[in-house]
Design a protein that fits this description.
Largest sheet: 7 strands, antiparallel
Structural class: alpha+beta
Strand content: 25-35%
Strand order of the largest sheet: 4-3-2-1-7-6-5
Radius of gyration: 24 Å
C-alpha cells in the first residue's frame, strides 16, 4: 500500500512538472487578446434583471462587477456560466461570461465577444481552485472550484453538451424572444416577447400566456390585495397596507391560478416595513409588473394589440 501511495505521489509530481514545462513553452508562443471594445456610453442604465442572480452563479463576482456584467449582457441572452480570468501573458483581468449566444469577455474598461464555433480549448494546468486553459491560441488562468470550472470548459469541448445547456436554459423563455424582461433577486418576474407573449417566471416554473387568457392579476401583501388589474378596479376597492411578511402577485387565468413570490418570508418571520429598502424596491418591482400587464390589457381593449 505504501508503494502504491508513493507511486501516486510520484506520478502527480511528474504530471505537474510536465504541465509547467508545457505552460512555459506556450507562454512564448501564444497570441494575446485584442484591445477590448470601449463601452459606447457610461454604464448607468437602470437594470431590469437583478445582478445578484449573477453573483449566485459566480461567487468571485463583487457587487460592482456584477452590475457591470448585467448592464452589458443583452436581456435576450441567458447566462450559462461566469468565471473570473486572467490572461497569462498580459495579466489583463476580466470575466468570461458564457451565454446562450456568445462567449463574452468583460471588465470595467470594455468587452469582447466570440462565437462558440470559432473557439477551441485545451486544459494546460489542472489545479483544484484554478486552471490554465489554452483558448484558441490564447492562454488564460481561470479561478474557481472544479464544480464551476469543469462545466465551463466542457462548453467548448463538447458541442452536444453546449447545445443541451443552451436549450435547457432557453426553456425558461418558453419559445419567446423577450423585448421586456424583469427578474428580481429571487428570480421571480415577467418577460414580454416580441409578439406580446407573456411569460411569468419563478425559481420553480415558467408559464406562458397571452393577455386575453388572463382574467385578473393582483398584488398581495400577505393576504391583502393592494393592487389589481386596472380594468377590474370598479369591482373592488383595493386596500392600503404598508408592511408585510411576504409579497406575491396572484395570477388568475381562464384555467389556472398561481402565485409569483416577490418578497418571501424570512427565516425569522420578520415584518417588512414600508421604510425598509427591501420592501420599497420589491413593492416598486411588483407595481412595474402590474403596470406592464395593464398596458397590454389596455391595448387589447382598444384594439391596438
Amino acid at each position: 500500500m505504501f508503494k502504491q501511495l508513493f507511486n501516486q505521489v510520484q506520478n502527480k509530481y511528474k504530471e505537474k512538472l510536465e504541465e509547467n514545462e508545457k505552460y512555459k513553452e506556450l507562454l512564448n508562443k501564444v497570441s494575446i487578446l485584442p484591445n477590448f471594445y470601449s463601452y459606447p456610453h457610461p454604464l448607468n442604465n437602470k437594470l431590469t434583471i437583478s445582478y445578484k442572480l449573477l453573483m449566485d452563479i459566480c461567487p468571485d463576482l463583487n457587487e460592482n462587477d456584477a452590475i457591470t456584467l448585467r448592464e452589458v449582457i443583452p436581456i435576450d441572452e441567458l447566462v450559462l456560466s461566469c468565471v473570473y480570468a486572467t490572461e497569462c501573458k498580459t495579466n489583463v483581468k476580466f470575466y468570461f461570461v458564457a451565454t446562450t449566444k456568445y462567449l463574452w469577455l468583460i471588465n470595467t474598461d470594455g468587452y469582447l465577444k466570440y462565437n462558440y464555433q470559432d473557439l477551441s480549448i485545451e486544459l494546460i494546468k489542472n489545479g483544484m481552485l484554478s486552471k490554465t486553459i489554452l483558448l484558441s491560441n490564447m492562454l488564460f488562468n481561470i479561478n474557481g472550484s472544479n464544480e464551476m470550472l469543469l462545466p465551463f470548459i466542457k462548453l467548448f469541448q463538447d458541442s452536444n453538451y453546449l447545445n443541451d445547456e443552451i436549450n435547457k436554459k432557453l426553456e425558461m423563455l418558453c419559445n419567446t424572444i423577450p423585448s421586456i424582461y424583469y427578474l428580481n433577486d429571487i428570480a421571480s418576474g415577467i418577460s414580454i416577447g416580441i409578439n406580446n407573449e407573456i411569460v411569468f417566471h419563478t425559481k420553480t416554473f415558467h408559464y406562458k400566456y397571452s393577455i386575453n387568457n388572463i382574467k385578473n392579476y393582483e398584488l398581495l401583501l400577505d393576504n391583502t390585495v393592494v393592487e389589481e388589474k386596472k380594468s377590474n378596479h370598479r369591482n373592488r376597492i383595493t386596500a392600503n397596507k404598508n408592511s408585510c411578511y411576504e409579497m406575491m402577485i396572484r395570477i388568475t387565468t381562464l384555467d389556472n391560478t398561481f402565485l409569483i413570490p416577490i418578497l418571501e418570508k424570512n427565516a425569522f418571520t420578520t415584518l417588512y416595513s414600508s421604510t425598509s429598502k427591501e420592501f420599497r424596491e420589491n413593492r416598486e418591482f411588483a407595481s412595474t409588473i402590474i403596470n406592464i400587464l395593464d398596458e397590454l390589457d389596455n391595448k387589447l381593449l382598444t384594439g391596438k394589440l
